[in-house]
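To close the section, here is one more complete example, presented without commentary so you can practise reading it yourself. The ligand is adenosine-5'-triphosphate.
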Amino acid sequence: MAARLNTSLQNTLSLFSKKLPSSPRRALYCTSSLESHENAETFVLTTPLYYVNAPPHMGSAYTTIAADSIARFQRLLGKKVIFITGTDEHGEKIATSAAANGRNPSEHCDLISQSYRTLWKELDIAYDKFVRTTDPNHEAIVKEFYERVFANGDIYRADYEGLYCVNCEEYKDEKELLENNCCPVHQMPCVARKEDNYFFALSKYQKPLEEVLSQNPRFVQPAYRLNEVQTWIKSGLRDFSISRALVDWGIPVPNDDKQTIYVWFDALLGYISALTEDNEQQNLDTAVSLGWPASLHLIGKDILRFHAVYWPAMLMSAGLNLPKMVFGHGFLTKDGMKMGKSLGNTLEPFELVQKFGPDAVRYFFIREVEFGNDGDYSEDRFIKIVNAHLANTIGNLLNRTLGLLKKNCESTLVVDSTVAAEGVPLKDTVEKLVEKARTNYESLSLSTACEAVLEIGNAGNAYMDQRAPWMLFKQGGVSAEAAAKDLVIILEVMRIIAVALSPIAPCLSLKIYSQLGFSNDQFNSITWDDTKWGELKEGQVMAQASPVFVRIELEAAEKDEEEKKKPKDSKKKGKAKVKVEQQPQTVTEA
Ligand SMILES: Nc1ncnc2c1ncn2[C@@H]1O[C@H](COP(=O)(O)OP(=O)(O)OP(=O)(O)O)[C@@H](O)[C@H]1O
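Output:
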């Protein structure tokens, strides 16, 4: 395992030490100004705080991309969004991984935590707060919280004996284990442990938790995960140990420095300590006043029990409000197994971003994996999807339209888009699809939201083909005037696509906006209201057309018929490379 970790870390470090090409997306890496939202509704969402046992992989990136898309959508709605992510840095698993890499835990945490921040930057993740559980502010809040729960009579000392999965950092029930007491998530045997620990009286909260779930079934999403949680609770909740006698790398238990606080008890509180400001007095009440309860915890299904059972009980004990929703999405898998740091079967997000850019990576995983379910990655599918959707349906349509506008109208709109669309059914179609996208973003059906935006692109392409403006221009007179209006209509469609897709592919959306003659500032101040028809006005001058999404080409191997005839094993897989291509025009348009 040490060797695997070292290799993966070296890959990552070498990737993020290379300077990636600069691109306009840097302009997008700004978080919303919280001050400008004084009266706005607050929306606080969190990703898990990722363990720093190893650098991030595509699974960690997946949750964070989804969270960023939701955060961006909520900002478009005008809410004051606080998007929290960060790293979970205590516990046995981290100490072991630091030792395996020849570092002290603190250096190890600094290094790996930084690799998360670097990846988030490359992926255009606009978080508002990045919390590290080794921050002194966080430690102060954990201690205060522990003392509150203790004062409430919910912490006691006892012996514990059980089977422990270090990778989950959790004692397991024998009945949930595989053969040889293997953890079903990590496929490694759990170890028998006996300890004298502090316990949290979870069993006391059985009834209150049942009530929370029956009164608010939307607390756990998707709905099928709620059943899972209800089954756990019904089977009887057992108190759990919240300290470790054998782990030094942790926050000392108040009044007993021979024990450290269990990493999960500590880490969950990062969602609250993240709310504090660096220059303010740190305490639980101040933190809570700055945004608690969270509107949404976005997590993988592996940590549902911690978020939907342990965490609400801990909060009740401390007299704090519960988060409004916990959404447990599915796994990115490799050969059917959860991709994970401990198993080492991960997909390198740094490499993917370097090869294909952030928009393609963000779009593919959001569009391809139905949010909530598991999904497998294949490079062929990746290339097929992003080429078809981003390069062809969206990029090519924009390019063709701008080409025709340049040739026939000096790149200038001849009429307001509202006037152009009078009596044109495409406008209604677009409005319905925008509404479909909005409701699906709201309900976290992110893939369907993407699909709705793509349908707008399909409708735009169908309009272009049906109207064939290049023919109308050739006919001249009234036909040419109609063609010029058609181009305004299609460009307005493109503008709406840019707004509606901006939560998922912000860089692509900015490029579309720029080509439509808008400034970066204008793009940065868009809201969901800008999906309404009519922003493009007569006289607006378009920018020089250039592909907004670079088509990904497979190297010649794919085209080589001979290669295709070879037996399966001897075939070399086509390696993807990025090639800038002029977007194709139809023969008649040219
Ligand atoms: N394969 C995956 N698919 C989707 N999300 C994942 C995947 N792996 C990790 N995540 C995200 O990361 C969270 C777990 O974070 P953690 O830091 O424990 O990563 P991990 O790779 O699962 O680690 P380990 O393999 O050591 O358990 C999940 O709840 C989920 O949000």
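Once you have examined the tokens, check your reading against these statements. Residues 48, 50-51, 53, 57, 59-60, 62-63, 167, 299-300, 302-303, 331-332, 338-343 surround adenosine-5'-triphosphate (CB under 6 Å). The chain has 22 helices and 18 strands.
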